[in-house]
Amino acid sequence: MTPEQKLQPTPAQTIGPFYGYALPFDRDSQLLAPGLPGTIRLHGTVRDGDGEPIPDALLEIWQADAAGNVPQEPGSLVRDGYTFTGWGRAAVDGAGNYTFTTVNPGATEEGAAPFISLLIFGRGLTNKLHTRIYLPENEDALARDRLLASLPPERRSTLIAEREDDGGLRFDISLQGANETVFLSFPGA
Fold this sequence. Notes:
This protein is mainly beta. It has one domain (39-174): Protocatechuate 3,4-Dioxygenase, subunit A (Sandwich). It is built from 3 helices and 9 strands; from the N terminus they run E-E-E-E-E-E-H-H-H-E-E-E. The chain has helices at 139-144, 146-149, 153-156; strands at 39-47, 58-63, 87-91, 97-103, 115-121, 129-134, 162-163, 169-170, 173-174. Strands 1, 4, 7, 8 and 9 form a 5-stranded mixed beta sheet that branches. A 4-stranded antiparallel beta sheet has the order 3-2-5-6, with no helix packed on it. This is Protocatechuate 3,4-dioxygenase subunit alpha. GO terms for molecular function: protocatechuate 3,4-dioxygenase activity. Belongs to the intradiol ring-cleavage dioxygenase family.
């Protein structure tokens, strides 16, 4: 090839999603068995830029336990119902809804805002999306959080879950549009 010849870019290729094969496993979205003391329901809907539900996304969460300890327990893929490993996976249903059974994470450092790390895999995404789910209660800790403080005030709310009357959390995800969830960039990830 001579220097005058230039390679032409080709369209991006997307694969899948093939989440129905091999990725889901028994009780994958139950970080603990439902009904155990301290468990909560984390749920929401994944939507596209037009506000339409996305029926084929896959979500993963990683989080600290209620005391703020990052679990080091093995066995995330083989649930026993009692061992909290801090990791779970949930496929959305046909209406874009997901549900996890988990606990409220504790702060991993004194005065820090507790959060759950969230990964989103889906049709048309050439790579996974990273974001966080913050608990809404501790306004002082939320105000001090470096990530939240780096965002315009109107964008911060896309990372803060809503507490429901039963103690559960609702966190809706918008992949694009006016209420797009803030996504994080991790070089090399």
